[in-house]
Write a structure and sequence with these properties.
Elements lengths: L1 H8 L16 H8 L4 E4 L4 H18 L4 E3 L7 E6 L4 H6 L11 E8 L2 E8 L2 H16 L8 E4 L5 E5 L29 H13 L3 E3 L12 H14 L5 E5 L4 H4 L11 H17 L5 E4 L16 H12 L5 E5 L14 H6 L10 E6 L23 E6 L15 H9 L11 H5 L15 E5 L15 H12 L5 H12 L4 H22 L31 H4 L23 H8 L9 H4 L14 H25 L6 H33 L14 H6 L11
Parallel strand pairs: 1-2, 1-3, 3-5, 7-8, 7-14, 8-9, 9-10, 10-11, 11-12, 12-13, 13-14
Antiparallel strand pairs: 4-5, 4-6
Helix pairs in contact: 3-5, 9-10, 12-15, 14-15, 15-16, 16-20, 20-21
Bound molecules: beta-D-glucopyranuronic acid.
Pfam families: Glyco_hydro_67C, Glyco_hydro_67M, Glyco_hydro_67N
GO molecular function: hydrolase activity
Family: Belongs to the glycosyl hydrolase 67 family.
Length: 712
């Protein structure tokens, strides 16, 4: 009976994420048990307690026997975790932890008083907690615990989730249910999920979270909500996570009773200083503000004829005495439509390079338009050598099929981080801009570094809306820790931790994940096309979208299809956006013969019979790629079907069902896009290509007033 009950509560609904801690296979367990017989871990501080509890829980679950708790090493196989200050054993070992900083750790096989032991040592408690998660990961991924000698330290300082959560529980661009923050019941009810959220983030090294939407509500800064935020900060603190808030630029008017929010107005500056003081009285380790200003209708300094630097610096000055940071977004839209939306952020920000305070980070999306399935790297990377730039990735799949499409974002992140800006010769990668190393000599001394991910987390049991979307949260965290890590290696460890170490499962699933993003590019926006989704909700294809308030919110603005060809000419003969890149890159992107084919229509307007690398004319190549994307999804379905016996029925069934939805929608994207573009190309479908299932009028008539996640 007890056994049955235990089984019933172990439902495989995805709630445990990659921290399932289910027994590892017998052979490994036997070998590993001898390396985890005893746990020597202090619990004098909340962070120490968190590390100790995680190890006890994890080792007990994975190995089937909980290690004995001890104050010192009494037998072979002890695991010792802590810092020189928290652990006498570690103090005696005299380990070299100089390069580890506050958050790094080392894991090493050592001998203590004649006993074999594994030590997880750090300079600060939080490093020891990160090391504890790493040690568990070794077990979870089936690695040996013999002769360990590992050292890790994060390459980026602020590794932050951005929640686009509104106070009413709606998550903008969220596809995993309502917000996990139950503002109404806070501060009193501290849902246990908050602790699990913190554990999951700490397991990846995420150390900050912005709780509210960038399209923000000034009420978040009122005393009532600050008290609620403080309660969350209390829950997160033992896991090394600081809270941040999106600050509405016009808050001094809306909740402060002032008549202006002009950043140079002394009363406004005073108001923000007082507000910062009040926040830090409530939350002593508050992280700072994230700001979306003068973008998509949000208020900002330009409303008063001031610059982004004026606005950011005012907030920076208010936070500086408390050690807070301003993350000022570069995702801007001026009131006037620019000649090319892709150029706008660069045009507005580069002139202010070097004018931002030391505690400001400019937060830049990976590409210049908007989290599209594929974009070339943002031209701001490398172009502001005196300003720390923070990466902003989107984890939630607003433009990538919402929750049901299996699209692993690791390859997208890796591609963006590995992109070579060439500003200081070959090897000037975006990763090196983000970690501060490329411009170490010109950046402010007091600089910080950061990476943000727009969260895909909601109140769904599985947190992310689908099992495979958990991998996107996971890979974001791992890449924020080390922007040079490999998407494939991370997929491999995630699959092992989340599903199984069975080689016959891991191999095909990793393979399937690795190609999934390219497949989405193929069935949605091949060859450099972009911004072709349905209006407003962004669900499904909408290449025909035109008219409305601004041209740069339409699809026709971006694809520019006509009888003579397709694509946005951003070369010297067009908007010349290429000139915002370093000359070597500009030359390549600007030359229709040399541009990487995946960006062809991003940078060039070419005729329908343009010869592509495959030898096919452009129209045929376009159709070929649309079909290839759909075929990949069919292949994923087949692969997954074949793995039925290797995974629990519950998760297998949901993934299988979602892949079915993905196939239908991929087909829809292909068919609708082909039906539409054919009206311009006027060309027949290449031989063997199936015609769209419906007429163009049919696709254009589809309406989705209740698609999830819409902005409001
Ligand atoms: C766009 C989203 C919109 C966000 C905006 C942003 O559609 O909901 O508010 O980005 O990043 O992609 O501010």
């Amino acid at each position: 009976m007890l056994g049955l009950l235990a089984f019933a509560v172990q439902a495989e609904d995805g709630h445990d994420l990659w921290m399932r801690y289910v027994p590892i296979d017998a052979a490994n367990a036997a070998a590993s048990r001898s390396h985890a017989t005893e746990l020597v871990a202090a619990d004098a501080t909340p962070v120490q307690s968190a590390a100790r509890a995680e190890l006890a829980r994890g080792l007990g679950g994975l190995l089937g026997v909980a290690p004995a708790m001890s104050d010192t090493v009494t037998r072979d196989g002890a695991v010792v975790v802590g810092t020189r200050a928290s652990s006498r054993v570690i103090a005696r070992l005299r380990l070299d932890t100089r390069q580890l900083g506050a958050e790094g750790y080392l894991i090493r096989s050592v001998r203590v008083d004649g006993h074999a032991a594994t030590v997880i040592a750090a300079n600060e408690d939080i490093g020891a907690l990160y090391g504890a998660f790493h040690f568990l990961r070794l077990l979870q991924t089936g690695q040996s615990l013999e002769n360990l000698d590992l050292r890790e330290a994060p390459r980026v300082k602020l590794r932050v989730l951005n929640h686009w959560d509104n106070l009413d529980g709606h998550v903008e661009r969220g596809y995993a249910g309502a917000s996990i923050w139950d503002w109404h019941k806070l501060p009193d009810w501290r849902d246990p999920r908050y602790t699990d959220y913190a554990r999951a983030n700490a397991s990846l090294g995420i150390n900050g979270t912005v709780l509210n939407n960038v399209n923000s509500n000034a009420l978040s800064l009122t005393p009532m909500y600050l008290e609620k935020t403080a309660a969350l900060a209390d829950v997160f603190r033992p896991y090394g996570i600081r809270v941040y808030l999106s600050a509405r630029f016009s808050a001094p008017i809306e909740i402060g009773g002032l008549e202006t929010a002009d950043p140079l107005d002394p009363a406004v500056r005073r108001w923000w200083k007082d507000k910062a003081d009040e926040i830090y009285r409530t939350i002593p380790d508050f992280g700072g503000f994230l700001v979306k200003a003068n973008s998509e209708g949000q208020p900002g300094p330009q409303d008063y004829g001031r610059t982004h630097a004026d606005g950011a610096n005012m907030l920076a000055d208010a936070l500086a005495p408390h050690g807070g940071t301003v993350m000022w977004r570069a995702f801007v839209y001026s009131h006037e439509e620019p000649d090319d939306r892709a150029k706008q952020a660069y045009t507005e920000f580069v002139p202010h390079d070097g004018r931002f305070r030391g505690n400001v980070l400019v937060q830049v999306k990976n590409g210049a338009i908007d989290f599209q399935p594929r974009e070339p790297f943002h031209p701001l990377f490398g172009a502001m050598p005196k300003t720390p730039l923070m990466m902003e990735f989107q984890i939630t799949k607003e433009y990538l099929g919402f929750a049901t499409h299996l699209v692993y974002l690791g390859p997208l992140y890796e591609e963006a981080l590995k992109a070579d800006t060439r500003v200081r010769g070959p090897g000037s990668t975006v990763a090196k801009v983000i970690d501060g190393s490329l411009h170490g000599d010109t950046l402010p001394k007091s600089r910080t570094t950061g990476m943000a991910g727009v969260a895909n987390i909601g109140a769904d049991r599985n947190w992310s809306g689908s099992h495979f979307d958990q991998a996107n949260w996971y890979v974001f965290g791992r890449m924020a820790w080390n922007p040079e890590s490999s998407a494939r290696a991370i997929a491999d460890e995630w699959v092992r931790m989340t599903f199984s170490n069975d080689a016959a499962f891991v191999g095909p699933v990793v393979e399937m994940m690795m190609g999934s993003r390219e497949a989405a590019v193929d069935y949605m926006t091949p060859l450099g096309l972009h911004h072709l989704m349905g209006r407003g909700h962004h669900y499904g294809p909408g290449p025909w979208v035109e008219g409305g308030p601004r041209a740069d919110w339409t699809s026709v603005y971006y694809h520019r299809a006509s009888r003579d060809g397709i694509g946005f000419d951003r070369s010297a003969t067009g908007s010349n956006a290429v000139a915002q890149y370093a000359p070597a890159v500009a030359d390549e992107f600007g030359d229709v013969e040399r541009v990487p084919e995946e960006f062809l229509l991003w940078f060039h307007h070419v005729p329908w019979d343009h010869r592509t690398a495959s030898g096919r004319p452009l129209w045929d190549e376009l159709v070929h790629r649309y079909t290839r994307g759909v075929d990949y999804v069919k292949k994923m379905r087949g692969t997954w079907q074949g793995l039925e016996s290797r995974v629990d029925a519950e998760r297998h069934a949901q993934v299988a069902s979602f892949l079915g939805i993905q196939e239908k929608e991929a087909q829809w994207w292909r068919d609708a896009s082909i039906a539409y573009f054919q009206t311009f190309s006027g060309r027949p479908l290449p031989e063997g290509e199936a015609p769209p299932a419906h007429s163009l009028e049919y696709y254009e008539s589809l309406q989705f007033p209740y698609a999830p996640g819409d902005g409001k």
